[in-house]
Specification:
CATH topology: TIM Barrel
Structural class: alpha/beta
CATH architecture: Alpha-Beta Barrel
Largest sheet: 8 strands, parallel
Strand content: 5-15%
CATH superfamily: NADP-dependent oxidoreductase domain
Number of helices: 10
CATH class: Alpha Beta
Radius of gyration: 19 Å
Order of helices and strands: EEEHEHEHEHEHEHEHHHEH
Distance between the termini: 31 Å
Helix content: 25-40%
Strand order of the largest sheet: 9-8-7-6-5-4-3-10
Amino acid sequence: MKTIHIPHTDLNLFPLGLGTVKAGLSWDGADADRIFDAFLDAGGNLIDTAHVYSDWVKPEIARSERVIGDWLQRSGKRNRVILSTKGGHPDMTAATPDLHKSRMTPADMRADLEASLKQLKTDVIDLYFYHRDNTEQSIEELIETMETFRKEGKIRYYACSNWSVERMQEADTFCREKGYRGFVANQSLLNLGYPYMNPLADDTLAYADSKMQAYHRNNSNNLLMPYSGVCNGFFHAYAAKGKDAVKSSPYFTEGNIRMAERVLALCEQYHATVSQVVLGFFACRDFACLPLYGPKNAEQLLEAMQTFDIPFQKEDYSL
């Protein structure tokens, strides 16, 4: 089985991570058991969540972590899981959430981490992410906060999400000077439709543009874990219902309509599904990356995991 190893760690990862933003909304209880168990049985190991998932749907908070924690307690399978969560996201419980109001002080991060440990029913998080960045806080403070958690045994490794290349490089330099391992992963937006899409409304999200891809190409110590890997269902909707079904999508551009036709051709060429073609894009990059995928059910997840048995080629995705 193909795995991705993050250098200078003991992390060997299946090349697709299980995203859980839908946990507690689309699936819970027995349905969650089927999804998590199917993922592990098919060779998966990285389960990714965030303390903020999905606080924007009232009244429950941190429901995704709660669903995972319940399953871990029921199943006794904690030792088979590489558990990833994120803290420091702006408050999403307010009537009008302000995505520019930072929550990344050491006290904020400790509160989120302690709450995550409780919800997940575990003593340690394998990968703990800053969910956003606050450039008004120093790199020194941010890294030392994570190092404190690591030394306390509450996290094993730390990482970042939605950071710029410049800030990651600054963190890399500081960690080298201090002798710290530093960030092991970075979550940013990248997918097949990214080069042609319109900007998203949330300007606090980071895109894995050519500069960020070059950073990861030259820095294997920090693994790119792309989110929005299936382009919010754009290519699926186009394949099922045509152009009229995707006109409101930020991916609705001339370039992505041409790419959608290319996806359909690749489905026929490889006898593959739309999900497999779209996720196959990641297996053809010239640097390691591990996309995160949030399924609706176990069958959909297993289909996606079979992507890596299909011999897609980089040139397949050229227009």
